[in-house]
Amino acid sequence: xxxxxxxxxxxxxxxxxxxxxxxxxxxxxxxxxxxxxxxxxxxxxxxxxxxxxxxxxxxxxxxxxxxxxxxxxxxxxxxxxxxxxxxxxxxxxxxxxxxxxxxxxxxxxxxxxxxxxxxxxxxxxxxxxxxxxxxxxxxxxxxxxxxxxxxxxxxxxxxxxxxxxxxxxxxxxxxxxxxxxxxxxxxxxxxxxxxxxxxxxxxxxxxxxxxxxxxxxxxxxxxxxxxxxxxxxxxxxxxxxxxxxxxxxxxxxxxxxxxxxxxxxxxxxxxxxxxxxxxxxxxx
Amino acid sequence: xxxxxxxxxxxxxxxxxxxxxxxxxxxxxxxxxxxxxxxxxxxxxxxxxxxxxxxxxxxxxxxxxxxxxxxxxxxxxxxxxxxxxxxxxxxxxxxxxxxxxxxxxxxxxxxxxxxxxxxxxxxxxxxxxxxxxxxxxxxxxxxxxxxxxxxxxxxxxxxxxxxxxxxxxxxxxxxxxxxxxxxxxxxxxxxxxxxxxxxxxxxxxxxxxxxxxxxxxxxxxxxxxxxxxxxxxxxxxxxxxxxxxxxxxxxxxxxxxxxxxxxxxxxxxxxxxxxxxxxxxxxxxxxxxxxxxxxxxxxxxxxxxxxxx
Lengths: 284, 309
What we know:
The structure holds 2 protein chains of 2 kinds. By secondary structure, chain A is an all-alpha fold. Chain A has 11 helices and 2 strands. Chain A has one domain. Chain A has a two-stranded antiparallel sheet. In chain A, strand 1 and strand 2 form a beta hairpin. In chain B, strands 5-6-7-3-8-9 form a 6-stranded mixed sheet, with helices on both faces. Chain B has a 4-stranded antiparallel sheet with strand order 11-12-10-13, with helices on one face. In chain B, strands 2-1-4 form a 3-stranded antiparallel sheet, with helices on one face. The two termini of chain B are 42 Å apart. The mean pLDDT of chain B is 91. The interface between A and B is large, with 33 and 40 residues.
């Protein structure tokens, strides 16, 4: 190897990490600054097609109006997390926010990623530049998360306007919604790298639809027998529903950190797997 | 210290049990136009991908700018321009936006990209199409945009994988002209091709690859002198007598005789003299052509196959 001067790369300092082994590999495979460039690219594309954002904002609102408000008229009030009665709309709204964050993040990180990976060859082009596989993974996940955050803000504004926010802790529901988006975006992208055809996306629906319906979105956990309660408590969407509901209703307790930790770990694993898999698929 | 920009020793690439590149050695100097010539599946693209740091070598040694492509991939890629075999343009963006986004992948500031884009769009004659979407552009225009895109980081080496495959003759000439200008400007070109005329036009030096190995190396002129005769006599017979005539031609003194499906080629020093000898045997070809040797003949000699096959 040449002993010449170390080459200088404009604006992209090489990350030099001492040692070897799995930790180093893991850290290296997480994206860096390059991920921002992919986010910029998506923002440029969506400037032309801002309409798709509208549907993502409107869909959970329709659910809120039909089920929260409409069905809520029949239900009246239910027992909130603190045992005190709350309006049905206030009970359902945070759960809808949770599933909207999940769906928004998943849409980008599954269908769109698959299209860019297999058909558009977007990542092949990016990886011919100083971008790394980890940058691609982090960029996609960040974008999905940003998009989810935008939906969450719009939804929270409507919730507040409808009087469904009971506590200033609701402000913390926003980062919690973003965390939800991160967890599902990362897991979704990781799964997408294993998919072979569009048919495989049925598995995403198969996983998310029951979560949406049964993760105490529409009724409290107490309606289930204990064994089923345990199953529901293990699902990722349940963590998000509990967190968001407790925050918007102002029932704050330390257990919330466990739910947050669950989602953070899920997101980190997804991020690492997605980066490694993109590298494996494209850098052959 | 070596001055070679790219250096490969025993470079090997295996995919499972299949060996795409089988221990090749080559060296490339600054300012050269270097070509990999070979049929499909010869290992050209695999070699290019390894140089482009998007495919780790299975074995052997490879350094680019004196750096290791596995450890220093991003640092090397920052100094390379890549024109892949299949256009990987961003079809959701306009012509100009493609340059912007790609430039950003290199971490270049927007004003720098803007200034370079102006120049590059002019260079590939796409300035008047800059706000068009990429998708409906013709193959030739897409190729030119891909070339402009590959130059956004002002690369020291430009890698072109079959730069004109699939283009019509006119579009090919435009691309060759632009590549020739880049060469004049001192950009080091590395290209793969299965077109002889492309190799002869653009390459100072080339290697002929076959089945993952390097069969020969040299300048186009060298290779022709070394592996072929000054002239070639091409004869075409009525298909009914083709085989028979081909046998009889053994009587004509020639350095080498190639019997193809549709023609017979005689490799000789003097084509006209050989044609007279053919006529002297009482053979009456439908058409006859005396021409100079080309790289195609070298290829045929080295691999026993025609390139179009």
